[in-house]
Amino acid sequence: METERLCIRKITDADAQELSKVLADSEVMKYSTVGVHSEQQIHDYIANYQKQYYQNGYGHWAIYDSSTFDFIGICGLNKHEIDSGEVIHISYRLAPNQQGKGYAAESTLGILDYAKHSLRLDAIHALIEPENVSSVKVVNRTGFEFIETSSFRGFIIDVYQVLL
């Protein structure tokens, strides 16, 4: 996928070192239900999403600046069960030096376009811990609406939805 400033593509084994800037950073992973990743967990993460691309047509993708090729972070779609049922939800994690530049909103809009036109999905959800103010701002800017509070992996989360 391409957006105005970003190239969003499948994650490969060659991305492992760049992914550590996000997945192994305790501040970036502060609101993650799975926590900071070790080197082995990063390789497992890559293998899992390569499998997801084949099985579902989606997963997490790497985000790079389309002009400088600098690593920005990751974004993508997951399918999970929450209290109210199964949802496909979006998530994103940006490298610390790439935050605050509008990349989360831009990549989210790119993913939503892909979900609507390529995957033919009707809705996408976002599962966000209420304290994660930055992510709440991103979903509010990209058309999501709050629908309920639920639990996910033992965490209380707010569930947002955007209809495609």
Q: What does this molecule look like?
A:
- With 164 residues, the protein is of the alpha+beta class.
- The protein has helices spanning 16-23, 39-56, 103-117, 133-141; strands spanning 6-10, 60-65, 71-82, 85-94, 123-128, 145-152, 155-163.
- Strands 1-2-3-4-5-7-6 form a seven-stranded mixed β-sheet, sandwiched between helices.
- Strand 6 (145-152) and strand 7 (155-163) form a beta hairpin.
- Helix 1 crosses helix 2 (39-56).
- It is globular, with a radius of gyration of 15 Å.
- The two termini are 17 Å apart.
- The relative contact order is 0.17.
- The model has no long low-confidence stretch (mean pLDDT 96).
Task: Summarize the helices and strands and which ones pair or pack.
Layout: E1 6-10, H1 16-23, H2 39-56, E2 60-65, E3 71-82, E4 85-94, H3 103-117, E5 123-128, H4 133-141, E6 145-152, E7 155-163
Parallel strand pairs: 4-5
Antiparallel strand pairs: 1-2, 2-3, 3-4, 5-7, 6-7
Helix pairs in contact: 1-2
